Amino acid sequence: MTQEHATRVQEHIGDPVSARAPLERTKLEEIFQDIQSDLRFDHQLNGCLNCGICTATCPSAHYYDYSPREIVQLLWTENLEGIYDAMQEKIWACAQCYTCAARCPFGNSPGGLVMLMREVAIKHGMESAKNVLRPFSRVMLKLISTGNQLSPDMISRDAFPDWGPNVSKVDAPLDTLRKAIPVPTLHTTKTAWEVNLKTSVELYTIWEETGVTNSLKTIDPNLFDVIQDIMDDKRDEYSDWQEAQGED
Question: Which of 11, 43, 64, 77 has a CA 20 to 30 Å removed from the CA of 160?
Answer without folding.
Answer: 64
